[in-house]
Amino acid sequence: MRLGIMQPYFFPYLGHFALIASVDEWIVFDVTQYTPKTWMNRNRVLHPKSGPMYVSVPLANSSNSIKTSEAMVLNMDEAKRSIAGKLSHYKRKAPYYYRVQKIIQEAFDGARDSSLVSLNVSALVTVCEYLGIPFRYRICSELSLDFPEKLGPGDWAPFICNALGATEYVNPVGGKDLFDVSKFSDIGVKLLLAEFSEFQYSTDPYVYEPNLSILDAMMWNAPEEIVAALQQNTRLIDQKL
């Protein structure tokens, strides 16, 4: 089993879905300290004049004193309306505007409760269904894993892989320095790094901006074009001792 483990980000960028498409099972990593002002409750889309702008989900308890699993959305309906409103400038320009607005609606409506994790998982599910990407996931806080105390940043993934019987683990190449390959090889797990090269697309009359939310990519590209980019632009690098 090839495993991916990532924090629950809010409508993350395309490379996040390249990672999802590369694994058999996805672990929503929500058991560590919540970090405010991260990609977990916000992301970026095109600004109506120039450059990017943020779309965000206000929280009722944004604090580094809570775990990610405890973060709660302040008001789901207001957040949904706010995000839909900030995307309205795409309406007469982006060919898939109405499809994306429907995805946002379904993501918010599909959240099982008002937790940020529930919202972000619903968004991942909704986008993957739209793109036709298989998405088998489990939420880490619901696995009842007995974590050792004081795990280092590079220790969580080997522990979870070993506990769940994974044979391969895939991580974004940007996190390469976090990991000691021997900690994976000692438990019989192959460490792979996913490298996603930039997918550029036309956003006329706007100026293209890289690494925006998947919402932007879906505004301008058909699902099959996005999936083709995921396949063509993703490379898995085998990390060996």
Shape descriptor: globular
The overall pLDDT, averaged over residues, is 96
Q: What count of domains describes the coordinates?
A: 1
SS summary, helix count: 8
Helix content: 25-40%
What this model shows, in words?
The structure is a single chain. With 241 residues, the protein is α/β, with parallel strands linked by helices. The chain has one domain (2-239). The chain is 33% helix and 17% strand. Strands 5-2-1-6-7-8 form a six-stranded mixed β-sheet. It has a two-stranded antiparallel sheet with strand order 3-4. Strand 6, helix 6 and strand 7 (190-196) form a beta-alpha-beta unit. The longest helix has 16 residues, at 116-131. The model has no long low-confidence stretch (mean pLDDT 96).
Notable traits:
alpha/beta, 8 helices, 241 residues
Compose a concise summary of this entry.
This protein has helices at residues 14-20, 76-86, 97-110, 116-131, 156-164, 181-185, 214-220, 223-233; strands at 2-6, 25-28, 42-46, 52-56, 137-139, 168-172, 190-196, 234-239.
Write the layout of secondary structure elements.
Elements lengths: L1 E5 L7 H7 L4 E4 L13 E5 L5 E5 L19 H11 L10 H14 L5 H16 L5 E3 L16 H9 L3 E5 L8 H5 L4 E7 L17 H7 L2 H11 E6 L2
Parallel strand pairs: 1-2, 1-6, 2-5, 6-7
Antiparallel strand pairs: 3-4, 7-8
Helix pairs in contact: 1-8, 2-3, 3-4
